[in-house]
């Protein structure tokens, strides 16, 4: 394999149950997924954090789970076989974090900037009594939600839009283009579970959370309120949030 500028580059696909973690981004306390992964890589490779240059495809908030988050790291040496380091990492990591895949990456690959799309899933347990097995994975709404109305609202997000109204400001973020492309926004019914699936080319800081969440879930109105455009931003926010059954 051709070495990268700073060594050989390796691609990881990671899954984690994020209940105990303060998201992906590195910090020592409270603990994050990146912190534990870097410690495991340090043990397995004997390299320091500054030499590993571990980068994730994106940040996640506290308590968020991942099925297949991509990351990369570099080493000054090559591996003839990756079976050993793969087993070592999963042996060191806590049970709620797993490296699903490890593979060589070309020097040009970057976990964040090479991403062609990202998908977020939000789950709502829509029943009078919450299933305790879902308590870490779904929001509980005892009020009956109207999935058809939610689908109608979701259509207005799909396409290329200016999402400035749905982004939080972060001092650590570089300036980004607020125009993003949403490929699909599906509302999937699975018994008592409603799964909201949002796929796009990329997202602004907390964009998807702000699109889907508010302080409280409401009983959805059966009357559809149509959106209207306002100067430079996507939608009349209060109209859309009531349409989807959420309020800020």
TrEMBL record:
<dbReference type="InterPro" id="IPR020094">
    <property type="entry name" value="TruA/RsuA/RluB/E/F_N"/>
</dbReference>
<dbReference type="Pfam" id="PF01416">
    <property type="entry name" value="PseudoU_synth_1"/>
</dbReference>
<dbReference type="GO" id="GO:0031119">
    <property type="term" value="P:tRNA pseudouridine synthesis"/>
</dbReference>
<feature type="binding site">
    <location>
        <position position="120"/>
    </location>
    <ligand>
        <name>substrate</name>
    </ligand>
</feature>
<keyword id="KW-0413">Isomerase</keyword>
<dbReference type="GO" id="GO:0003723">
    <property type="term" value="F:RNA binding"/>
</dbReference>
<protein>
    <recommendedName>
        <fullName>tRNA pseudouridine synthase</fullName>
        <ecNumber>5.4.99.12</ecNumber>
    </recommendedName>
</protein>
<dbReference type="InterPro" id="IPR020095">
    <property type="entry name" value="PsdUridine_synth_TruA_C"/>
</dbReference>
<dbReference type="InterPro" id="IPR020097">
    <property type="entry name" value="PsdUridine_synth_TruA_a/b_dom"/>
</dbReference>
<dbReference type="InterPro" id="IPR001406">
    <property type="entry name" value="PsdUridine_synth_TruA"/>
</dbReference>
<keyword id="KW-0819">tRNA processing</keyword>
<feature type="active site" description="Nucleophile">
    <location>
        <position position="61"/>
    </location>
</feature>
<dbReference type="GO" id="GO:0160147">
    <property type="term" value="F:tRNA pseudouridine(38-40) synthase activity"/>
</dbReference>
<comment type="similarity">
    <text>Belongs to the tRNA pseudouridine synthase TruA family.</text>
</comment>
<feature type="domain" description="Pseudouridine synthase I TruA alpha/beta">
    <location>
        <begin position="14"/>
        <end position="113"/>
    </location>
</feature>
<feature type="domain" description="Pseudouridine synthase I TruA alpha/beta">
    <location>
        <begin position="153"/>
        <end position="212"/>
    </location>
</feature>
<dbReference type="InterPro" id="IPR020103">
    <property type="entry name" value="PsdUridine_synth_cat_dom_sf"/>
</dbReference>
